[in-house]
# Entry
Amino acid sequence: MKKFAAIIDGKEFTVSSEFSVHNPATGEVVGHAPNMAKEELDAAVSAAKTAFVTWSSQSDEFLQAACAAVTAKIEAHSAELAELITLEQGKPLNGLGSRWEMGGAVAWAGYTSGLSLPKKVLQDNEQGKVELHRKPLGVVGSITPWNFPVMIAVWHMLPALRTGNTVVIKPSPYTPLSTLRLVEIMNEVLPPGVVNVVTGDDKAFNLGGAMSSHPDIRKIVFTGSCATGQKVMQSAADTMKRLTLELGGNDAGIVLPDAVPEQIAEGLFWGAFLNNGQTCAAMKRLYVHESIHDAVCDALVAYAKNIHVGNGLDEKSMLGPVQNRMQFDKVARLVADAKGRGKVLMGGEPSEGLFFPPTIISGLHNGDPLVDEEQFGPVLPIIRYSDVEEAVRMANDSPNGLGGSVWSSDKAAARVIASRLECGSVWINKHGAIQPNAPFGGVKASGIGVEFSEEGLAEYTDIQVVFA
# Structure
């Protein structure tokens, strides 16, 4: 069984302690990662801080070329990384699985490489010249989740590198192997210390907490739960770190009465069940007008019955297992409670191991745990409504505000409803379709700041205004 090494200052960094990483489809150990502590984190931060002096002074053209070289390396190793993702995360190689994730990672890396933040001339007249410059922050700490281990790592690291920052990244203990290999690959074309990776099982030592309070880390970019994001924000306060927090969502979809059930069933399914529902911007609750409620339920169930669930290494699989026992138990708890409140249209019974079938439950209401809590798994509650005003009110009745969607045959009418949803992104007749040229982030408890595009790139910089 392969032991993966961390990369600090461009070199393999081994420690005496390690932890096992398991395939959620089989329970088998697929690799071992270093279990690192404060000394290793300090070494990684020190290497990044030293490398920043030279890296931050490079020209914009140099940084762009370096990021393009990183993109080419990632693309060249896409098949290898996709298999690692499937082994440790569980998602299928096929369909909207790990190969699709790697395609997204390459696309985001390539697009980000081509972005730039040139200086702006705010004034140039007889009173003087005023320029706005974007300057790199320093060491960026990246803390990534287990649902998209490579793509989210790319979302964090490439804009940091493109703007002249250096990086220390900590992946989830559930999925560290693909990130360890990713950073090893990146270091083949980057100077030592520019990107460093630390891993740990978070049992004896809280690496993430140590990063968010570390005095030499200038910014934390974190993707994960609201509860953990709040802790990151609290521990970052003493050092006044910059923060980008992409936190949980409990995204609502609203189906208007003029929608055609058979035409939207596929989009509804993948909007909710992409990555087995383990997606921050997945649709977590669906409000359907009473006039087409039953038809939408029937169309969704009919489509879902064709989805093969199994081991991600099986090319027939379109969905895999829930990634870890803690998440599986949460999904099972919410479904068990919902059974006594609504009607199970499909699924509802856990399978062997960590497999949970796509589950659709109707007859639920706001206030029911499966509707109010982010399930982050392969379950969709469907709520009947009679008045569009009621649907908007129920959709907005959440502390979260990451994404939302409206489904209708009349796009103009859908846009009017969409504008009233309290969320950072809203889609018409689709859900969760993010892209690198559009800013992405949440409102309310779903986060601070945005990722992607020029707006996301700017979050890795300080503004300096020069008066001359």
